[in-house]
Amino acid sequence: MFQSNTFKDQVVLVTGGRSGIGFQIAKDMLQLGAKVIICSRKEAPLKEAAEKLSEFGVVDYQACDIRNTEEIQALAAMIKEKHGRLDVLVNNAGGQFPVLAEYLNDKGWNAVINNNLNGTFYMIREMANAFFIPQKQGNIVNIIADMHRGFPGMIHTGAARAGVENITKTLAQEWSDFNIRINCVAPGIIESSGLDTYPQPVQDMFAEAKKAIPLKRFGDVKDISNAVAFLASPLASYITGISLYVDGAQHLNYDKMGMPNVLKSFLNP
Ligand SMILES: CCC/C=C/C(=O)SCCNC(=O)CCNC(=O)[C@H](O)C(C)(C)COP(=O)([O-])OP(=O)([O-])OC[C@H]1O[C@@H](n2cnc3c(N)ncnc32)[C@H](O)[C@@H]1OP(=O)([O-])[O-]
Ligand SMILES: NC(=O)C1=CN([C@@H]2O[C@H](COP(=O)(O)OP(=O)(O)OC[C@H]3O[C@@H](n4cnc5c(N)ncnc54)[C@H](OP(=O)(O)O)[C@@H]3O)[C@@H](O)[C@H]2O)C=CC1
């Protein structure tokens, strides 16, 4: 659907690109002409993913925990040495676990805030300082979540993603002088490797909730990748500071999905 040269010779970094949504984004960017770098915490699955992706184009990888500034700086140094520039940063790495607020301890709260909010900010700041600000050009897409009306059962990630959404609105203004565009994609429930990490009762609850999604289906990793490609492409050259909900209108119908109640009955000890 996009022209195969949409990202020709552009350098694209996809965090969490070894699996699920990130893998699809990396694959599609390669097929649209980009050189792609993927990072995540563990070296072995990253290498395996990079080998699979190399069928589609030039791909590099480096283990990097987005919560660790030194590791991010080392990743930026590798990209500078090998490619000389960075055009697009896709902040896809993240995760959380279902829990009710009253049972969430400091460690669990901090783990998710550190990953999804702090890690995303560190990555944005470091890549902007290393590339986008000196280049006076850059493009950032942040994967957040469907937390438009709060996120019962996932208060930590709701707060973290709302923080990223606000960072996005701030930087769309603060960094407009550097010709940096920054946007979010907010996935609904997407059939991906990430979803498989949830316990069976939560997956059963998702299956039940599907009936109340106005488009009556879960999303596909390709639905998210298409939105990322659009926002990172020149087709979106006048779009910055927005969140694009890719969720079959779930965010308009959340309470009817019965998620809070089902989550509550599952999560109550
Ligand atoms: C509708 C929405 C659909 C969304 C779908 C997706 O997003 S799919 C994509 C989803 N993909 C993913 O989510 C995958 C990636 N997810 C992750 O890597 C983790 O969930 C992370 C984000 C907490 C980071 O982890 P990390 O390596 O930084 O930390 P750690 O593992 O060492 O844990 C630190 C502390 O957190 C707590 N705690 C953690 N887990 C649970 C739990 N299940 N139960 C209860 N508590 C839990 C616990 O306090 C633990 O300390 P402890 O008690 O062990 O001393
Ligand atoms: N699937 C869904 O329905 C939805 C997903 N999302 C979000 O979309 C993103 C992708 O999800 P999905 O593909 O489904 O799930 P996955 O669990 O497959 O992907 C998460 C990726 O992030 C990486 N990652 C996690 N923490 C870090 C870290 N600290 N540093 C570097 N990499 C990290 C993981 O690799 P590793 O563990 O090896 O580090 C993994 O590759 C996530 O942020 C997720 O929360 C949002 C809403 C809905």
Helix content: 40-55%
Span between termini = 48 Å
How does the helix and strand content classify structurally? alpha/beta
CATH topology label: Rossmann fold
Low-confidence segments, given as residue ranges, are none
How many helices in DSSP terms? 8
Q: From the coordinates shown, what is the CATH architecture?
A: 3-Layer(aba) Sandwich
Bound molecules: (2E)-Hexenoyl-CoA, NADPH dihydro-nicotinamide-adenine-dinucleotide phosphate
Strand content: 5-15%
Please tell me what the overall shape is.
globular
Largest sheet, in brief, is:
7 strands, parallel
Largest sheet, order of strands side by side?
Answer: 3-2-1-4-5-6-9
Order of helices and strands: EHEHEHEHEHEEHEHEH
* Integer count of domains: 1
Keywords: Fatty acid biosynthesis, Fatty acid metabolism, Lipid biosynthesis, Lipid metabolism, NADP, Oxidoreductase, Peroxisome, Phosphoprotein
InterPro entries: NAD(P)-bd_dom_sf (IPR036291), Peroxisomal_t2-enoyl-CoA_red (IPR052388), SDR_fam (IPR002347)
Enzyme class: oxidoreductase
Pathway: Lipid metabolism
